[in-house]
Amino acid sequence: MTELIDIRRVQTSVEEIFHEFGPRPGRTERIASVCAVLTNPYAGRYAPDILPMMEALKAAGLDMATRCLNALGGDPGTVEGYGKGAIVGSAGELEHGALWHVPGGYAMREILGNAKAIVPSTKKVAGPGARIDIPVTHINASYVRSHFGAVEIGVPGSPQADELVFVLVMTTGARIHERVGGLRADQISVGDGQR
Question: Residues 6-27: pLDDT tens digits?
């Protein structure tokens, strides 16, 4: 199965937000992303059974989740938000991006100590240099409004027509100066991944 996974490039980045209008916040928001550019073994043809690649991607998912966590210092206790996504090159189909749901999402939940909330996701088919907005929510309760966000990401020159870009994102907290109400992180009580 490992012959299905051929990673060409990995891009890791960390953004630090020190200030956004209003008073200076008492914390720095940090956002890490990891993108892997890999060959799409199904490019240019319709393959009725693509599930073998989903299984084969599990090791890549764990590696990327570990890289993302390490970019934030390595302590799962500091991560409060996450998201994932995929950009499929033009010779592929949207369903090839959906192969990332299980290996990307479960890897982050495992690395972070079995986070409860579903990992939000997006995907699209696009050409080289395309960017994508990765949705972000709280790791333990999807209804925590303060952590709703998105991270714009892309890899220069990727994906080529026969490639995929898989993305993982982790954040260390709420939006700077969040103040639109709703369920707060310190009010999570149900433990169902939603509230």
Answer: 999 999 999 999 988 888 888 8
Given the structure tokens 């929510």, which residue do they identify?
Answer: 137
Q: How far apart are CA 30 and CA 161, in angstroms?
A: 32
Check pLDDT > 70 for residue 93.
yes
For the domain covering 2-187, report its CATH number.
3.30.1330.110
Distances in Å between the Cα of 137 and the Cα atoms of 3, 5, 61 are 33, 28, 19
Structure tokens at 124: 């699209």
Backbone φ, ψ for residue 120 (5° rounding): -65, 155
- This prediction has a pTM of 0.95
Q: What is the DSSP string of 62-131?
A: HHHHHHHHHHTTS-GGG--EEEEEEEE-TTS-HHHHHTTHHHHHHHHHHHTTS--SPPPEEEEE--TT-E
**CB–CB of 54/99 below 8 Å?**
yes
